[in-house]
Amino acid sequence: MSHKAKSASTDVPESFYLNTYHTRDLLPPMWEIVYQEAIRGNHILFDDADVDPDTIVMQDASFQGDGLTKIEDVLVQMLASSDLTQIRAMIAGLSQVERQALFLIYKNLIQATSSMLKAQLH
Fold first, then answer.
1. CA dist., res. 95 & res. 114, Å (int)
2. pTM of the prediction?
3. Per-residue pLDDT for the chain (122 aa), expressed as one digit of tens each?
């Protein structure tokens, strides 16, 4: 099943999603949705091939020089955006290795956010 179909616009009001997903105002509204879906294993920013652990083959070059700079630039643009379609287009513009490197960074950010939220509960 493709994640692309899940990101298509629907007739469901945005307020429904914003009320359904709430992380104590830690994240901007759209990113709350991305986070809540991610912890359920639904990575709506990425295509299936980019999140399949059997196909992720990292090359050290992805995290050095121009590869790292490009990933950092896209990450900053993603975080500044509130448009899911635009973010998916940014990711699609990367090479496969860059998309996979970005996915690994994204996974680490999801885990760090989860840890922060758990710490706030105690």
1. 28
2. 0.71
3. 444 444 444 565 555 554 554 555 677 888 888 998 999 999 999 998 888 776 666 554 445 666 678 888 999 999 889 899 999 999 999 988 888 889 988 999 999 988 887 877 76
**Alpha carbon 33 to chain centroid, angstroms:** 10
Q: How many CB atoms lie within 10 A of CB 38?
A: 22
Q: Which residues of 76-96 are buried (b: 16+ CB within 10 A; e: fewer)?
A: eebeebeebeebbebbeebee
- What is the residue extent of each domain of the chain? 3-121
What's the DSSP call for residue 23? -
Structure tokens that stand for 109 in this block = 């950010």
CA 6, 36, 34, 20 torsion-angle sign: positive
